[in-house]
Amino acid sequence: MSGADLLFYFFATLSVGGGLLMVFSRHPVSAAMFMIISLVGVASLFVLLDAFFLAILQVLVYAGAVMVLFLFIIMLLDVGPGGAKASRLKLLSGVAGLIAIGLLVVLLLDLGLGSTDPSLCSAENCEDCGEAPVFAWPEIRDETAANGNSLVFSPSVKAFGFGLLAKYMLPLQVAGFLLLSAMVGVIILSKKSAIDEEA
Amino acid sequence: MTTITPHHFLILAFLLFGVGFLGVVIRRNVLLVLMSLELMLNGINVALVAFSRAGANLDGSIFVFFIMTVAAAEVSVGLALLVALYKKRKSIFTEDMNLLGN
């Protein structure tokens, strides 16, 4: 087991463990803190996958902006630890949790069975279908290149910007318009008069 | 050579998605439900970046960028709705949002 493997398992544990602690923590502030741990773990996994720009975006946007917004709302609404008056819906949430865990188990079992499916093992790259074929990550090039209509993976921000501004120009404009409309919507929702008139 | 394959990343993505789904389903605090939704989106992002890297194709990574944009917009609007709801109902627990009756 090499160092990169250990890093993968460390950050995978960090992200899933942070998520589990977030789901099961009683106080919303500690839940937000565990969520930040989980998001930083995911950002580190992006670094392991050579997606450096996305890792920076993950920390800036999620840990920096979204979670601060969550903490601000938690403190604005003064939310305490919930669940004291939970008993009314205990059966319902128990059943719902069972369904969620069942979905997770089915997904994982499906994935585990799929990996040892002999039909996926073609004859030319794997003589002995009993063991899993060795996977090699493709070499990455540090340049912007287009392979037909698809862009070649590259860790550089330059390639990312080229893709955004050339091939994905229209989606970028639509994303900008979406952010603008979200901002206008939030301002209208948060205006004092809008709530008071309805109330 | 590392022994980590896209398979490992896919299992991790499913785990993140499942934990987020569990949070959406069992938590009654709407803030925690929104956070769990973010966790589900993160699971999808991990799967997309892993496939993008394994297939040497940048399109998946750019899609993750747009997912992040939409998630940020969704959270801001969701929290504004939550604050407006709190002003009316004085609660952010889902069992108190029974305007249509019990």
Describe this structure in words.
- The complex is a heterodimer of chains A (199) and B (102).
- The termini of chain A are far apart.
- Chain A is globular, with a radius of gyration of 23 Å.
- In chain A, 68% of the residues lie in helices and 2% in strands.
- Chain A is mostly helical.
- Among the domains of chain A are: 1-80, NADH-ubiquinone/plastoquinone oxidoreductase chain 6, subunit NuoJ (Four Helix Bundle (Hemerythrin (Met), subunit A), Up-down Bundle); 156-199.
- In chain A, strand 1 and strand 2 (150-151) form a beta hairpin.
- Chain A has a two-stranded antiparallel ribbon with strand order 1-2.
- Chain B has a single domain, classed as Helix Hairpins (Orthogonal Bundle), CATH 1.10.287.
- In chain B, helix 1 runs antiparallel to helix 2 and helix 2 (30-54) packs antiparallel against helix 3.
- With 102 residues, chain B is an all-alpha fold.
- Chain B has helices at residues 6-26, 30-54, 59-89.
- The chains are: A mainly alpha (199), B mainly alpha (102).
- At the A-B interface, helix 1, helix 2, helix 3, helix 4 and strand 2 of A face helix 1, helix 2 and helix 3 of B.
CATH topology descriptor of chain B: Helix Hairpins
Instruction: Tell how many strands the DSSP assignment of chain B holds.
Output: 0
Question: Structural class from helices and strands of chain B?
Answer: mainly alpha
At CATH level 3, the topology of the domain at 1-80 in chain A is Four Helix Bundle (Hemerythrin (Met), subunit A)
> Largest sheet of chain B, if any?
none
The fraction of residues assigned to DSSP E strands of chain B is: under 5%
For this structure, what is the CATH class of chain B? Answer: Mainly Alpha
Q: Which features characterize this protein?
A:
heterodimer, A: mainly alpha, Four Helix Bundle (Hemerythrin (Met), subunit A), 2 strands, globular, B: 102 residues, mainly alpha, Helix Hairpins, 3 helices
